[in-house]
Amino acid sequence: MSHLTIRPARTDEYDEIGRVWMESWVSTGLAEASNFLLANLRARVRREIEDGWSLFVADADGAIAAMLALHLPKLYLDQLFVAPAYQGRSLGRQLLAFTRTQMPDEIVLRCVRENEKAWRWYEREGFVFETEVVNPATGFIMKCYRWKRQRTAG
Fold first, then answer.
1. Reported pTM
2. Contact in structure between 96 and 79 (CB atoms under 8 Å)
């Protein structure tokens, strides 16, 4: 893979981040690409930034390979999406390692129940299933997970 840098997103990248988000979401088979979906995700990026997101990108020599949205005060990993062209290259694992530097003691997240590939990956990465809830905005059933740093006996 080309040189990769995880860095804060710039405002001039928000539309491209929305496109990467849509393409990655569509790659799960749970949605179809559309101008409507793209417009909604682009608007959501801006709205979520205003509501407290810390938004990062994986920059592969100037191309946005992935997006990572964290809500640090809530210890919440909100979105982690890798562009289809960059999937299968351990980029998700790198983003998760970066997330653990930002929230070193505890991370919570939700994952669409039908996105089995994603939630099984989070389980392999040490996240523990807690409950299921319905996302009122989408109607999707969400699996809720938590990861806590393991403390060594001292």
1. 0.93
2. no
How many Å apart are CA 100 and CA 97, to the nearest integer? 5
Read off the pLDDT of residues 2-24 as tens digits, 9 standing for 90 and up: 689 999 999 999 999 999 999 99
Q: How far apart are CA 90 and CA 124, in angstroms?
A: 13
Residue 124, exposed/middle/buried by CB under 10 A (0-12, 13-18, 19+)?
Answer: exposed
141-148 and 128-134 beta bridge pairing = antiparallel
Interstrand relation of 141-148 and 106-112 (parallel, antiparallel or unpaired):
antiparallel
Question: pLDDT tens, 34-93?
Answer: 999 999 999 999 999 999 999 999 999 999 999 999 999 999 999 999 999 999 999 999
What is the rounded CA–CA span in Å between residue 57 and residue 119? 21
* Nearest partner of 48 among 25, 90, 17, judged by Cα: 17
Query: Are the C-beta atoms of residues 31 and 51 closer than 8 Å to each other?
Result: no
Q: What tokens were used for 28?
A: 């799960």
Distance between alpha carbon 144 and the CA centroid of its chain, in Å? Answer: 14
